[in-house]
Amino acid sequence: MEDGVVQRQRFEHRGFQLSYLDSAPDQPDRPVVLLLHGFPDEAAMWLPVIERLHSAGYRCLAPDTLGCGASQLGTRSRDYHARLIADDHAALLAALNIRQADVVGHDWGAALAWLIAGHHPDRVRRLVPISVGHPTAYARAEFRQKQIGWYTLFFQLPGLSERLLLGEGRFSLRRVFASHPDMDTVMQRMRAEPARLTAAVSIYRASLFDVLFRTQPPVSCDTLGIYSTGDRFLVASQMRSSARWVRGQWRYEQWPGGHWIPLEQPARLSKAVLEFLA
């Protein structure tokens, strides 16, 4: 599909060459949906959703975050701070002369979507965070969230965590994130270019303190939060309680299924997004 409807493009921000997928670069009048991936994924995870949203008349943009996919690697750990990456995505809209977009994010992409809507409110028309609630709601969630999110602390061990994640033991990507529907591809990608794994975990290293201890701004746009009951990494309350940080209309949906909703349920997700954006 990438060599069909979707085209890979690049732009520069913060001195980095950043990659993104664009379903309609020659149709600037289409309404825009910005699709943000999380860990350990890249922009291509959105292709089944892009196909459906594009067919419904939207222009879909799916960036590879710094160091992921085809985007340039950062040179310092602090380059991967979530607020800076959120600014990268807002800068993409500015570079394409897009005044406002609907923003959909999964996992870390959801956290980035919240940050864009909070710090760049004029850029976001409607917001669809999937799995991860508002960063402050996540930080204040019950102790169970700290227990099942133990890997965020494991990722703080440079070198050691990468070595174990690329192995086959109990702390490997394959074991810790066994529910990922395409883990074989993830393992092949990370082993072929280990620097990409360091980039993927660097957002945790650069951002964890701010996520846990700094209150992030509320969002003013209408928001649809989606959570799945089979999520092994997140509790439902951190999404439900995100209503406290939404000044627009808030809608919450809880679905059956696992953590990777865009990969596991692209048809249902596309339908829900289209209905919400209509």
Automatic annotation (TrEMBL):
The keyword Hydrolase applies. It comes from Abyssibacter profundi. GO terms for cellular component: membrane. One of its GO terms (biological process) is acylglycerol catabolic process. GO terms for molecular function: monoacylglycerol lipase activity. Residues 31-147 form the AB hydrolase-1 domain. Gene3D superfamilies: alpha/beta hydrolase. PANTHER family: HYDROLASE, PUTATIVE (AFU_ORTHOLOGUE AFUA_2G14860)-RELATED, MONOACYLGLYCEROL LIPASE. The keyword Hydrolase applies. Pfam families: Abhydrolase_1. This is Alpha/beta hydrolase. InterPro entries: AB_hydrolase_1 (IPR000073), AB_hydrolase_fold (IPR029058), AB_hydrolase_sf (IPR050266), Epox_hydrolase-like (IPR000639). Keywords: Hydrolase.
